[in-house]
Design goal:
It holds the Pfam family TauD. A hairpin with a 2-residue loop joins β3 (78-80) and β4 (83-85). The model has no long low-confidence stretch (mean pLDDT 94). The chain is an alpha+beta fold and 313 residues long. The protein folds into 2 domains: 10-93 and 107-123 and 278-287 and 298-311, Double-stranded beta-helix; 132-266, Clavaminate synthase-like (Double-stranded beta-helix), CATH 3.60.130.10. Helix content is 27%, strand content 28%. Strands 1-2-16-6-19-4-3 form a 7-stranded mixed beta sheet, covered by helices on one side. Strands 5-17-8-15 form a 4-stranded antiparallel beta sheet. A 4-stranded antiparallel beta sheet has the order 10-11-9-14. α1 (21-27) runs parallel beside α3.
C-alpha cells in the first residue's frame, strides 16, 4: 500500500456572513459546489446556525428538494424533505467509513451536514477519498468485487437498528414486496413477521459527472467483523450467526473474513481526513467521491444531515 497522506479539508470562511445563513449559501453556492467538486468535500465555517430551523434552511439551500431516505439501517428524526437528524447510533460506537445508501438502487450524490451542537470531545464526521482507497486496495480484491459486486443481508427486528416499517415507510407487506421487486431486493418473511432481505450491488462505480472509478459501498461498515467483539458476541448469541441484523459478503455469497474487512478499514484510515466540529459548521460532501464516518464522542451532539441529487449507481 502506498503512503499517500491526505491533505486538509477544503475550507470556506463565512465569518462575515449575515445572520441568514441560507441567503449567504445561495449567493456562494457556485463556490461551494466548485470546492466540493475539486476536493470532494468542503467545510463552510462561521455561519450562524443557532436553531434547527436555520440549519434546515442552510441544508436545503445546498440540496434543494432533497431525497427521501428509504432502507435506512438506523432510526432518524425527519426535519423536512431530505433533511434528517444524524442516525441514532450509540455514542460510544463508531460508524465506520461508508457511502450513504450505497446499498440502495438510488443514492444521493450530495450530502450536507450542519452542526448545531458540537460534542464535548471527538465525534468527528471524517471523510476519505474513495479514488485513493480504490487505488490502494489489493488488485485481486478489487477485481473480485468488481466481478461479483457485494452482497448485503438484513434481518429487521425490533431490538437492533430500525424496523422494516420505518425503513420502507409503510406497514403494508405487499407494498414492501413491490418496492423490493422494483429495486432488486429479495425479501422473505419469517413466521414471527420479521423480514429478511438480500441485495447485491456494485462495489466500484463510475462517478456520475467525471466518470472516475470510485470505491462505493458499505462492505466494511456493515460487516460483522467491524462490530465491536462484545456486540457481535451478544448479537450472535441472541439471533445466531445467520440472523445478524446486517452482514456483508462477496457478491456471489462467499463470506468475508476478518482479515479482509480489517484491511479495507486500514486503507480507509490511511486516507482519513478529520476536522473537529464547531458550532455553525456546514460540510458539503460528494457522496460518491468521498466516504464518511462518525467517530465515538462524549457530550451532546446535534448534526443535521441532508441528502440530494439522487443517482443510480
Amino acid at each position: 500500500m502506498t503512503d499517500h497522506r491526505p491533505g486538509p479539508l477544503a475550507l470556506l470562511d463565512a465569518s462575515s456572513a449575515p445572520p441568514h445563513a441560507a441567503d449567504w449559501i445561495g449567493e456562494h453556492l457556485d463556490a461551494i459546489r466548485s470546492a466540493a467538486d475539486e476536493h470532494g468535500a468542503v467545510l463552510v465555517r462561521g455561519l450562524v446556525l443557532d436553531t434547527r430551523e436555520t440549519a434546515v434552511a442552510a441544508i436545503r439551500a445546498v440540496v434543494g428538494d432533497g431525497m427521501t431516505e428509504r432502507e435506512g439501517f438506523a432510526p432518524r428524526d425527519t426535519y423536512g424533505p431530505g433533511v434528517y437528524s444524524s442516525s441514532h447510533w450509540p455514542a460510544d460506537q463508531p460508524m465506520c467509513m461508508h457511502h450513504e445508501l450505497s446499498y440502495a438502487s438510488e443514492a444521493p450524490r450530495t450530502m450536507a451536514f450542519a452542526c448545531l451542537t458540537p460534542p464535548t470531545s471527538a465525534g468527528v464526521t471524517a471523510v476519505a477519498d474513495s479514488r485513493a482507497v480504490l487505488r490502494d486496495l489489493p488488485n485481486d480484491l478489487v477485481e473480485r468485487f468488481e466481478r461479483h459486486g457485494w452482497r448485503l443481508t438484513r434481518h429487521y427486528n425490533p431490538y437492533v437498528g430500525t424496523s422494516w416499517q420505518d425503513a420502507f415507510g409503510t406497514d403494508d407487506r405487499a407494498e414492501v414486496e413491490r418496492y423490493c421487486a422494483q429495486h432488486g431486493i429479495e425479501p422473505s418473511w419469517g413466521a414471527d413477521g420479521g423480514l429478511r432481505t438480500v441485495q447485491t450491488r456494485p462495489a466500484v462505480v463510475p462517478h456520475p459527472v467525471t466518470g472516475e472509478r470510485c470505491w462505493f459501498n458499505q462492505i466494511a461498515f456493515l460487516s460483522e467483523w467491524t462490530m465491536a467483539p462484545e456486540v457481535r458476541a451478544f448479537l450472535v448469541g441472541e439471533f445466531g450467526p445467520e440472523g445478524l441484523p446486517f452482514n456483508t459478503f462477496y457478491g456471489d455469497g462467499t463470506p468475508l473474513d476478518r482479515a479482509t474487512v480489517d484491511l479495507i478499514n486500514k486503507v480507509y484510515e490511511a486516507h482519513t481526513i478529520r476536522e473537529p466540529w464547531r458550532r455553525g459548521d456546514l460540510m458539503v460532501v460528494d457522496n460518491v467521491r468521498m466516504a464518511h464516518s462518525r467517530e465515538p464522542y462524549r457530550g451532546e451532539r446535534e448534526i443535521l444531515v441532508g441528502m440530494g441529487e439522487p443517482f443510480r449507481p
